[in-house]
Design brief:
The structure is a single chain. This protein is mainly α and 112 residues long. 79% of the residues lie in helices and 0% in strands. Helix 1 runs parallel beside helix 3, helix 2 packs antiparallel against helix 3 and helix 2 crosses helix 4.
């Protein structure tokens, strides 16, 4: 009998959350694209934030995928699937990219 370890359960929850998050983003992105029709160009600093977040999230998801033993036969497919799912919000989604820029902007302003 295959019992789930805590790593397997955490990974399943993270994977389901990522898939659900991407499905929630699609209507938000479509409303922004069709409603505004404005194309915003990002500078190198803003695009750097997207790359940083994408790399950090990729590292987290790959690390957790490597620790789980339940999916060890499908690890390559799962990692590729995760990279595709992470690519959409971090590098394509206008709504999420605006949130990333806002978050890093607040971090720059808050100096203690």
């Amino acid at each position: 009998m295959n019992c789930f370890s805590i790593n397997d359960i955490v990974y399943i929850i993270l994977q389901a959350s990522l898939i659900l998050f991407c499905f929630i983003l699609i209507p938000k992105d479509l409303s922004i694209i069709f409603r505004s029709g404005v194309i915003v160009g990002r500078g190198p600093e803003g695009f750097g934030y997207f790359i940083i977040l994408y790399n950090v999230l990729s590292l987290i998801f790959i690390s957790i995928a490597m620790v789980t033993n339940f999916f060890k036969d499908y690890i390559a497919i799962i990692i590729i699937f995760n990279q595709i799912l992470l690519f959409y919000p971090c590098l394509y989604s206008p709504w999420f990219r605006n949130k990333i820029i806002g978050f890093f902007g607040r971090l720059k302003k808050e100096r203690h």
